């Protein structure tokens, strides 16, 4: 191995280990906050004084809408209404909403035929839903999200006790399969580096994100923020409303909870589309942030590639000098530095230590997403989501 190649490779590997070591304490602080975040036990005598409007926008959600709504109606918290908003569905979503409303008078249904210019469909549907809502608290959720029986009661109690303006829960999955345990956490780990939960919940930090599966906000705060009309063209409206709330001094809290669960991914392409959209909005389609995302993934492939290459050479009985052996051991050490925090994170995501061996696959998927976002930004082609093309704050129907 030539001197220049040995030195440059050695420096790169050392830099990786040092950077990972720097980030591990941040990861551990975030995981400590997550482990301490627990919704309180129910005390209905306290929380039932607040009325809750659960607003569910749905577009082509016939396979999911009944299960989602029935889980809300089965809630131990009874002082609620459910607003179902059909967002131009082409399947049986509207008919299923009608049937649900006939069975329970707590349900109101709204049918959206058209979306005004410069609005995203979901944001407009939620805006319309709030127009017929009467609750003290608005709870926005997705049509494929399933609630535990005590979720709303415990969330309202926490919301009241902590005097929150906005509470968002990052969901678990209805089924934890290979993608959810093995690949999804690699993306979640990186977003946690950009937006650690302990920073999100720190009023002195600008970091702010939220999950559209569960956003609880007081009706008063919602109106003070200017309603969804202020965010009408946002693709990641959940992140946008959290940022807006925090920017004006509102108290927000974001935590993870398996008491709300979303459907599992059908395949790796669905997973990639989800994270493309998430990163697109969370990173503001900003070239510098996208490059940082790319650097969080792609260079991590180097030690895996070097290890495979050098092992192959050894198996072929090729003579490896001292420089090659140094690089080999440095590559293995770098892989260990990658795998250990990943393993800790996986345990927090219902995963298993064995899934750490999928790190190259997860890293490659993340690098693919980051590269795709880079070209999306450079060539301004926008991102497709549910039949529309989004270019920053501009959109058009396909």
pLDDT < 50 runs, ≥5 residues:
393-398
The fraction of residues in strands falls at: 15-25%
- The count of domains is 2
Question: In order across it, which strands form the biggest sheet?
Answer: 3-2-1-4-7-6-8-5
CATH C-level label of the largest domain: Alpha Beta
Could you give the distance between the termini?
53 Å
Arithmetic mean pLDDT: 87
Query: Order of helices and strands, N to C?
Result: HHEHEHEHEEHEHHEHHEHHHHHEEE
CATH superfamily of the largest domain: Spore Coat Polysaccharide Biosynthesis Protein SpsA, Chain A
Largest sheet: 8 strands, mixed
Number of strands: 11
- CATH level-two architecture of the largest domain: Alpha-Beta Complex
Radius of gyration: 23 Å
Task: Look at the helices and sheets and give the structural class.
Answer: alpha/beta
CATH topology of the largest domain: Spore Coat Polysaccharide Biosynthesis Protein SpsA, Chain A
Note the overall shape: elongated
Number of helical regions:
15
Percentage of residues in helical conformation: 40-55%
